[in-house]
Amino acid sequence: ALEFTYVDSGHFLLKKPKKMFKRLLFLMAALLCMVACPGFAVTLIYDDDGLVTNGITDGTSAGWNTSAAVFYNGAGDAAWTNATTDIAQFGGGSSGTAGTLTVGTVSTNGITFEAPFAGSYTLTGVSICWGWTSPSLTADANGAIATLLTGSAGFTKAGARTLVLTGNNSGVTG
After folding, report:
1. Which is the most buried residue in 14, 26, 86, 132, by most CB within 10 A?
2. Which residues contact 132 (CB under 8 A, 6 or more apart)?
3. d(CA 59, CA 120)
C-alpha cells in the first residue's frame, strides 16, 4: 500500500520514496526480462488430425511444418512456431497409426519419441535445426530420423529405446 504524509494546502508527500523506487525498478526489470529474455522450453505434442476434442491422434498426414495447426500446446492445437526452445513430441496418442512423417524446415530444442497407439515414427524430409544450447533426442519408444540435422550445439540422446539416425548429420557440430 502507498503511504502519504499531508504537508499543507492539500499537498501530500509519498512516504518512503526510496523503497517505492526500488520496487518500481525491480518491477520494470522483471517486465523487461519477460519481453527480452529467451522463453522457457515447452513440449508440444504432434496431433495428426488437429482436433483436440478427440485427444491426441498419431498419424502422418499433416507433417511437421510451420503451417499445419497440429501441435497440442496444452490448450489447443497450433502450428509449429520454430521457437528454438520448444520440444516436439511424437507418439502418445489414443488412436491412429504412426509411420513416416514428412518434415519441412523446422527448428527445435529437442525431439521426444513416446509410444504411439500403433506403429513407430520415422521423420524424413527437408531439415531439422537444433536450437538453444542443449538440444536432446529422447527415445522412450523406438524412432528414426532420416532427414538433415543441423546446429552448432550438438545434442544428447536420452531414453532407453532405439533411435536410428540415417540422414545427413554432417551439419551438426558441437
Report:
1. 86
2. 38, 41, 84, 85, 109, 153
3. 10
